[in-house]
Amino acid sequence: MLESKIPVLGFAAYSGTGKTTLLKQLLPLLCSGGLRVGMIKHAHHDFDIDTPGKDSYELRKAGASEMLIASGRRWALMVETDGEGDPQLQEMLNRLDQSSLDLVLVEGYKHEAFPKLELHRPSVGKPLIFPDDPDIIAIATDGALSEPTNLPLLDINDIQAIAEFVTADFLGAG
After folding, report:
1. pLDDT of residue 174
2. Among 19, 85, 115, 145, which is least packed by CB within 10 angstroms?
3. What are the residue boundaries of the structural domains of the chain, listed by start?
């Protein structure tokens, strides 16, 4: 299990289920309730947050193993790795300033052991995750499940209900 000073909740689903879309709607609801929320997103491919031609990109590509860019409004740290396997969630969690957060949401990392809310759309044609993952604590879906469960069921399209589950049931702030 993860070691964390604050609660960590994952959103586990197969590609095409709408994890990012749901989280973009959920985050404002959680933040409007006074929560300070951190986010970790697992990316499966090589990615850049800086743009070719920009100084930060050119300096990183020139050989900087860590590139921090900062302004009065935000800062970002890009770290080059050896490309050997995916980063461990614990390592990424340790990089967050947990003292300034109340909750960390995680998109992806569905194979790691920590509490997760499964997002399932039968129309995507993928199997359920919960039967093989004891860390699933609830399921948000838009259809009937192909297997019975005693887990809480949520409507994947009712973002308010999901926010209430996170605050009341997961965080116990209900």
Report:
1. 58
2. 85
3. 8-42+86-170, 47-85
The answer to whether domain 47-85 has CATH 3.40.50.720 is no
Rg (CA), the chain: 18
Burial string for 144-153 (b: 16+ CB within 10 Å, else e) reads eeeeeeeeee
Q: pLDDT, tens digit, for every residue of 8-62?
A: 999 999 999 999 999 999 999 999 999 999 999 987 666 667 788 888 888 888 8
Nearest one of 87, 90, 94, 104 to 47, comparing CA atoms: 87
Q: Which CATH class is domain 8-42+86-170?
A: alpha beta
Q: What are phi and psi of 157, to 5 degrees?
A: -95, 0
Domains 8-42+86-170 and 47-85 share a fold: no
Would you say 131 and 154 are in contact if contact means Cβ atoms under 8 Å apart? no
